[in-house]
Amino acid sequence: MVANGQSQKDVKLFIAGLDSIRKALKIPAMSVAVKTGNIMRYENGMGYADLEKKIPATSKTVFRVTSVTKTFTSTLVMKLVEDNKLQLDTPVIRYGVDLGNDKITIKNLITHTSEGIPGNTFQYNGYRYGRLGQVLERVTGLPFEELLMDNILISARMTSSAPAISIDKYNQFLQRRPSIKAYFDTVFNHLAKPYAINSEGKVIPTQYLNEFGAFGGLATTAGDLIKYSEAIDQHQFIRAKTQALVFTANLTNRGTKTPYGLGWFVQNYQGINYYWHYGQTQGESALFIKVPQLKITLAVLCNSDKLSQPFPLGDGDLFTSPVAELFYRCFIARGRKPDRLFKNKEMVAQATMALFNRDTTKALHIYQRYAGENITSPIPKGVFIAAISKVGINADSVKQFTLVTPAKIRVFGVGENCSPDLKYWCDYGWIEDYSGKIIWNMQGQPASSAGGAAKNQKVDQVISLPAGKYKLRFKSDSGHAFNSWDSLPPDNFFWGILLFKVAVN
């Protein structure tokens, strides 16, 4: 029986849609496994594991899955917690991990809340998470790769999986444990070749990064990830109560819910819980989704970073991924109607893929449709003194203006406030005098939501300026900006800064 009455026709639609996404993102090879209940609905590859040799991707093709490895690290940590060998509130400095603040705990690392004041804000940070490997090794006296092999890969019979360790480490491991050779042989013989996109938009070979640790570096197949998922559901690694804690969204010190539990992203949409992780680095990317309520698991692995790289998955929203959107439509919806927000995310993802292919006409058409369906708050009206609007990526715009007499000025600016505590702007405006001295800056001003993505923030205030010559400026980075949105745009689609003259009664 197929979960939710899912038909084989819908599975075919999903695979066709997935291959379309693969081609749009110029991903050479993709391996996919979908399981509903006890039935494997699909397990195969598409595209080429080696473009030059025309070697097709199959269900046996091995891919490196980068940060999906973090879920394995979480399992190892929580096993030690269960065994009373580790406590989440223990400062990591005790294990030789010095991150500049001796109050940072294991829980702060595993929940990505270690930056700034520990526990205050969520900020995804793979490097800091990776320091959990040092903690595990200190507690157990064993290398991280050995812990991973013994406690998870061998235990779950993931026979097409192995840690992507260096040759030297492999040789040392092999001397200690000759039985692991079969796992590594399988990985070496079936590993997909990594690829990247050059500045001309062409697919070119690249190299895997020589990195492995608690942050990432596992090599596996989509089918083996399904085995891993099943072992989790059967509580093969840790008890049900402990797993429930892993799948519970963490709260900051202020009680704000974050999108991350203990090593997994945690999300609820329309009453359904999704436990997931993505991976992204040079030559590799992956998306791994568990929906236990519906007994559905999806694993998608690729040999370029483009499954993840154009999309802001690190912000913690699964449905910014076109693959996740397609997965929902084909396997989850089944009578549920996606809301306006979901449809908006679909439009942004489609526009992102169009821009990736340098099809600005298609992207603009999508943005125009989005704007027509979503503008809810008009841009302020009045007599402009100076205006900078429709600011795209990598801009540094300047408008000169002169005040003959002192004046009260209304400043309305919308930009990208990109730090987790919303105190640092990536796209922002300011006013300077002709000597270059900054008179007023969006940075540090009280801000509020501009609608759409949380990082869309606005400043709307009245200031006083003396008579003189000034420059209004606005600067943007290479990410989120007008008609290059990587996340939901602001409600009024405005990106820039406006100065209005305030009438004096």
TrEMBL record:
Coiled-coil residue spans: none
Organism name: Pedobacter lusitanus
Name of the molecule in the record: Beta-lactamase-related domain-containing protein
Domain Beta-lactamase-related intervals: 21-308
A Pfam family that the UniProt record links to this protein: Beta-lactamase
InterPro entries tied to this protein: AmpC-like, Beta-lactam-related, Beta-lactam/transpept-like
Gene3D superfamilies associated with the record: DD-peptidase/beta-lactamase superfamily
